[in-house]
Design a protein that fits this description.
344 residues; DNA polymerase, domain 1; Rossmann fold; 2 domains
């Protein structure tokens, strides 16, 4: 049989057509599903160890990786060798290196701001109280610290339906009647507001610290969407239990651990932590305001934002932002009314 010879022009046309077909044909995309690693995926870690860790509140790799050896030993009763091994495996399984400023900026986009419904106050904080941070409000009695805690609780539930507020009460200051007044003022059902606030009374400093640790259980075990944690007040029990200079070091060390736990839950779960703080008067201050917050540098350094509340003229209140990582110092005045805060 004679083989038919094709003309060069015809061959070139066919090659062009074939190339166009290949370009139009979609390439098969290989989808690689990355499964998020859990504690059970750690090499050399048995089910009994995983059960101990989960029972103590260590639900994921990150919580184990950022924990100290002493913390895990105290809460689980594991040996030092086993604890070191688990922490090392968790850190090796996670990408715990440096990240770019661009990545941090993207994470900052997840920050939620809880409004006070007071224009001047929100403007002072550029939108409201931040999640992922600890905000400390200190001032003398009657300056509005507890009122602000009730207002933030109601506004959180109103602006973020389905969310939960945790209120740790150390001075018997929580009042459901006040929640009802504030809810009515912003058009929120009182029963819905009260249902979404989880209140716990702390009877001493150890109980207070334990309740903060239990916030993890509310999120991981009960599946609650906790947006705000309130402690009113932060230092009342510490101040009452540790008296005199001889106990100061022990008190500050314990308070430091408590603040670290609060910072941890704020960052891990993107929660706004609002703490009120008592004050004392410095007798050696001859000029300026002698009012100083309790807790010293430990609380001051651990708090992301610090707000000083004081009484103003004609029944008003003044909030002064005295410390912030990104906002300038400033102050605003407002009235505390039955329905909430009111601008002057």
């Amino acid at each position: 049989m004679k083989q038919e010879l094709m003309e060069p022009e015809t061959i070139e046309k066919e090659i062009k057509v074939e190339k166009q077909k290949n370009q139009k044909m979609p390439k098969e995309e290989v989808k690689v599903e990355t499964k998020e690693k859990t504690l059970t995926d750690l090499p050399g870690v048995g089910p009994a160890t995983v059960e101990k860790l989960e029972a103590s509140g260590y639900q994921d790799l990150m919580s184990v990786a950022v924990a100290s050896v002493g913390e895990i030993i105290d809460s689980t009763g594991m040996t030092q060798a086993a604890t070191k091994k688990v922490i090392a495996q968790a850190r090796a399984s996670l990408d715990m290196g440096f990240e770019s400023g661009e990545d941090v900026l993207k994470k900052r986009e997840q920050v939620i701001r809880i409004s006070t419904k007071c224009e001047n106050f929100d403007k002072l904080l550029e939108g409201g109280f931040e999640t992922g941070a600890i905000t400390e409000c200190f001032g003398e009695f009657g300056s509005g610290k507890t009122q602000l805690s009730h207002i933030l609780a109601v506004n959180t539930i109103k602006d973020h339906p389905g969310s939960t507020v945790v209120y740790i009460d150390t001075e018997n200051t929580f009042r459901p009647e006040r929640i009802g007044q504030l809810a009515k003022g912003i058009g929120l059902d009182t029963q819905e507001a009260l249902k979404n606030i989880k209140i716990a009374k702390a009877y001493n400093s150890d109980h207070q610290m334990l309740l903060v640790e239990k916030v993890d259980d509310l999120i991981n075990k009960q599946g609650l969407d906790v947006k705000l944690v309130i402690i009113d007040s932060l230092t009342a029990h510490f101040r009452a239990e540790y008296i005199g200079r001889g106990t100061l070091a022990e008190r500050q060390q314990k308070l430091n651990r408590h603040m670290r736990d609060l910072s941890k839950i704020a960052h891990m779960h993107n929660i706004c932590v609002y703490v009120t703080n008592q004050v004392m008067s410095k007798p050696d201050t001859f000029f300026g305001d002698p009012t100083q917050a309790i807790g010293g540098h430990i609380v001051g350094h651990a708090s992301t934002f610090r707000i000083y509340l004081r009484k103003g003229k004609k029944g008003s209140r003044v909030a002064k932002l005295i410390d912030s990582p990104n906002l300038p110092e400033g102050e605003c005045s407002f009235y505390v009314e039955t329905s909430g805060l009111k601008d002057i």
